[in-house]
Specification:
By secondary structure, the protein is an all-alpha fold. 82% of the residues lie in helices and 0% in strands. The longest helix has 19 residues, at 102-120. It is elongated.
């Protein structure tokens, strides 16, 4: 199990998200409650522009572990990529409140600015 997970991580690092997903498929069946496996799969879906699947994956991680600030951040980014800015902002606000990392703050600012521009247009 660990070997397959590490292999999927490497594939994703090397920008091969579809191969990572193939490697993760058996793990998702065997480890349905493993947040780390779902998180890696959701990241691979996001990297391959499968936004609905990425969204479902990040939501699954948050079902398992509601305190996962990275999953919340990544969900916000996924929603942003789908132009669902209000929903994205809500997730990014929570992520930034849970952990005030600069990248979370920047993403929140970016989405908030996009919403302001949209309202002004």
């Amino acid at each position: 199990m660990v070997t397959a997970f590490r292999r999927a991580e490497q594939l994703l690092e090397h920008r091969r998200p579809l191969d990572a997903l193939k490697t993760l498929a058996p793990l998702l069946e065997v480890e349905p409650e493993a947040a780390s496996v779902h998180l890696l799969a959701a990241r691979a879906y996001l990297a391959s522009a499968q936004f609905r699947r990425a969204e479902a994956g990040f939501l699954r991680v948050l079902e398992i572990d509601p305190a996962d600030h990275y999953a919340r951040f990544a969900l916000g980014r996924t929603l942003q990529r789908q132009s669902r800015l209000e929903e994205a902002r809500a997730q990014l606000r929570m992520a930034a409140a849970m952990d005030p990392r600069p990248e979370y703050q920047e993403a929140l600012g970016e989405v908030s600015a996009s919403i302001a521009l949209r309202r002004g247009a």
